[in-house]
Amino acid sequence: MDQINLTPTLLPVVWLVFFTLFFQARKVLAVDVNFTICSVPRYCGGLWIKFPFFIRELDEPRCGFPRFNVSCRNNSTPVLSLPDGDYIINDIFYQNQYFLVSRADRHAVCGHSIQNISLPEDRFYLPKSQREMVLLFDCNLTTRGMEEFSQDMVDCGSGNESHTTLALWNGDKELGFVSGNCTKSVLAPVAFTDGMENVEDVVNRGFVLNWIASDCSVCEGTGGKCGFDYTSYHFNCFCPDRPHSARCRPGMSFSLSCSCMV
Ligand SMILES: *[C@@H]1O[C@H](CO)[C@@H](O)[C@H](O)[C@H]1NC(C)=O
Ligand SMILES: *[C@@H]1O[C@H](CO)[C@@H](O)[C@H](O)[C@H]1NC(C)=O
Ligand SMILES: *[C@@H]1O[C@H](CO)[C@@H](O)[C@H](O)[C@H]1NC(C)=O
Ligand SMILES: *[C@@H]1O[C@H](CO)[C@@H](O)[C@H](O)[C@H]1NC(C)=O
Ligand SMILES: *[C@@H]1O[C@H](CO)[C@@H](O)[C@H](O)[C@H]1NC(C)=O
Ligand SMILES: *[C@@H]1O[C@H](CO)[C@@H](O)[C@H](O)[C@H]1NC(C)=O
Ligand SMILES: *[C@@H]1O[C@H](CO)[C@@H](O)[C@H](O)[C@H]1NC(C)=O
Question: Which keywords are on file for this protein (predicted)?
């Protein structure tokens, strides 16, 4: 009899307690959407693509840094587009903030389409120590004679003497004479200088680019995912609870990854 009498009066209270707990729990357990979105690992061509890079077709720009969008061409080749052309990303060294690139156009030297690399200076720069090759096109070497420069000639298999292409290291003392007698010169950074038999191959093997972006290690080290807020135009550390400016606060975070710190 007691039960029958109590239930109608207690029921609303029980429900209230239940709902309160349920919604409290939901609030606590709800993982921030930005954290979730930027937690999806991305791969392209066997490379792990993460902050500051993001894949244009797959990722939210907020998971990367402005200008670090890469295209995963054919689902297999990460490509960075620069004003002078497309570059294939061959490797990324996140710890040291540099990556290896090579021109997507493999015939840029012999096809004469090669241009000076044009870098957004606030994002990418060439390491000072990296060697550069000077490529000179349409050289008229009649006065000094071709033989003198035979070592420097780029063999593109055309044999057209009025289209002579030369390759010299930047700093070569002959550059002064030569460049005045060629119509176009281009600086090509090269990282791998061994096996100099074919200039186009050496140029195609690529070079190192350093990058400038917010350091991700502190955020990542506290269990966050690095990202960017395009509204405030600032770096964000997306944490399970909410976006933070630099790092996740271990005390605020209930996530499983932080339970070890309790
Ligand atoms: C991408 O795939 C298309 C069609 O399969 C092919 O024609 C093209 O050469 C490929 N591009 C690259 C860069 O592999
Ligand atoms: C991605 O890069 C291209 C070429 O550099 C640029 O035009 C485009 O605006 C970029 N998109 C985003 C979302 O950053
Ligand atoms: C190359 O230079 C020489 C000497 O300046 C000139 O006589 C000749 O016409 C030039 N040849 C070409 C193809 O421009
Ligand atoms: C070399 O190139 C010039 C200019 O394009 C052309 O007029 C000439 O016929 C070419 N010579 C050979 C041997 O291909
Ligand atoms: C270019 O060639 C001419 C002769 O054709 C030579 O006198 C000159 O020193 C060369 N170099 C420059 C920089 O003009
Ligand atoms: C490439 O850069 C070098 C050095 O700044 C310059 O001398 C050369 O004219 C440039 N070439 C082109 C095609 O803009
Ligand atoms: C996700 O991040 C963006 C940019 O920082 C912010 O505008 C938005 O409010 C965030 N969303 C949530 C659910 O925190």
Answer: Glycoprotein, Membrane, Signal, Transmembrane, Transmembrane helix
